[in-house]
Amino acid sequence: MNKPFLLVVEDDHAVRNLITTTLETQDYKYHTAVNGNQALMEAVSQHPDIILLDLGLPDIDGVDVIKKIRTWSNVPIIVISARSEDQDKIDALDAGADDYLTKPFSVQELLARLRVTLRRISYTNSIAEQEKSIFVNGGLKIDFASGCAYIDGKELHLTPIEYKLLCLLARNIGKVLTHKFILKEVWGSTLESDIPSLRVFMATLRKKIEQNTSNPKYIQTHVGVGYRMLRISSEE
Q: Where in the chain is the domain with CATH 1.10.10.10?
C-alpha cells in the first residue's frame, strides 16, 4: 500500500518534533494536534490512516479521545505515553487502542510498530476484497462458513468456547486483546473472577494448535493484560 497519512497527537513540543522528524525521514505524510479537541476535529476532517496518540493531553484524557473516535471509526490508534502501569495500558486497549508504546521510546521501535500496523491494515484490506469466509495464518486455517478449523491440514476438534476464542483472535490478528474484552465478547461478562477460566480455555486451545506450548507460535500472552494472535510469515 502507499505510505499512510498519520495524525500525531502530542502536546509536548520536543516529543512531537521527534515523532514528526522520524516520519519525515520515512516519507510519511502527517498532520499534528496538540490537544484532544483538535485531535477529534482532525480525525473527522482529515481521515487519517493511523493515529499516534499521547494520553496526557491538556484538555481531554487520551483514553476519552480513543472512546470518542471508536464511536465512528476503526482507524488504528497507537498510544505513545509516559504512563507505564499495566492498568493504564489495559484502559487504553480496552477503550479501543491497537498498540501501546511507552515513553521514552526509540525511533526504531516506533517505526517497527508502524510497520506492524501497516501490515495489519494491508491484511485487513485484502480480506475485505475477498470472501470473508476463510482465514489463513501459517498452518492455521479457519472456515467461518462451516465453523471448522484446521492446523497443517488436519481438522481441529474444538469446544464451542475454544472455537469462539480462536475466531476472536483471528479476526483481530496482530492486536492485543485484553482479558476484559475477550470475556465480554466470548462470555458476555467482564468479571475478573472469570479470568482463571479464560486462562484454562486458552491453555487447552494452545495445546491443540501449538507444536510447542512453552514457545507458542500463534498465540502470544501479554502478562497481566491479555492475548494476541501473531501473524505468521508466509515464508515460515
A: 133-229
- pTM > 0.85: no
Q: Which set of grid coordinates corresponds to residue 14?
A: 520536543
Q: φ, ψ for residue 161 (rounded to 5)? A: -65, -45
Q: Are 173 and 192 in contact (CB under 8 A)?
A: no
Quote the CA–CA distance of 32 and 11 in Å, as a whole number: 9
Alpha-carbon distance values, 37 to 42, 57, 59, 60, 182 (Å): 9, 10, 7, 7, 30
Measured between alpha carbons, how far is 16 from 211 in angstroms, rounded to an integer? Answer: 44
H helices of the chain, where? 13-25, 36-46, 62-70, 86-95, 107-128, 160-171, 179-186, 195-209
What are phi and psi for residue 199, nearest 5 degrees?
-65, -40
Q: Which of the listed CATH numbers 3.90.226.10, 2.30.30.40, 3.20.20.70, 3.40.50.2300 matches domain 5-126?
A: 3.40.50.2300
Per-residue pLDDT of the chain (236 residues; tens, 9 = 90+): 567 899 999 999 999 999 999 999 999 999 999 999 999 999 999 999 999 999 999 999 999 999 999 998 889 999 999 988 889 999 999 999 999 999 989 999 999 999 888 888 877 766 655 546 788 999 999 998 788 999 999 999 999 899 999 999 999 999 999 999 999 998 887 778 788 999 999 999 999 999 888 888 999 999 999 999 999 875 54
The CATH architecture of the domain made up of 133-229 is Orthogonal Bundle (1.10)
Which phi and psi angles does 52 have, rounded to 5°? -100, 115
